[in-house]
Amino acid sequence: MDNAKDTPEVEENVDAQTEEASAEVAEAVSEETVEEAVEPKELTLEEQLEAAKAEAAENYNNYLRSVADLDTYRRRVMREKDELKQYAISGLLEDFLPIYDNLGLGLMSAEQTTDPKVVVQGIQMVMTQFKSLLADNGIAEVAPGAGDDFDPNVAEAFQTQPSDEVEEGKVLSLMRKGFTLNGRLIRPASVVVSGGPAKEGE
Fold first, then answer.
1. Which end of the chain, N or C, is more open, meaning fewer C-beta atoms within 10 Å of its C-beta?
2. Phi, psi of 197 (to 5 degrees)
3. Which CATH number covers residue 151?
């Protein structure tokens, strides 16, 4: 009778020991699998050489593609630069054409009239149109007048003349107008500078 009572307890112990052993075996197998996954497989010298050759070939192909792309980009930029240089003034030229037309009409009118006032008025109208076009494109006149300070940054002294009316070192007269483009000097004005009152013997 006692042996019959002890049998379930023995079976429970055996089952517990079996489960514990199975868990240890599973853990050991899992650790081995992780170690195999973590530790890289060592390559032979031949395999390492082949891998290095493949990597070198890929890098060389990438280099060739980069060189080709750079050459294509350089040629495209040069072509666009040439086109820009050739046609950069096309818009400005289009604005000049009406003035050109008006000059032609003015010449035709001058040939048909004997009144100089009509010719002068026509020229003045074309000049006004021309100045408006220059201003619209950022072009400004540099025209110092008599008595203005001589500024070597925007004007050049054509010559010096004595004068009793204009102070020495100031502009006496304007010989040729200068021009600036968006504040940058394109052509300096040419002026005559006063040398002050004439000295005796001059």
1. N
2. -60, 145
3. 2.30.22.10
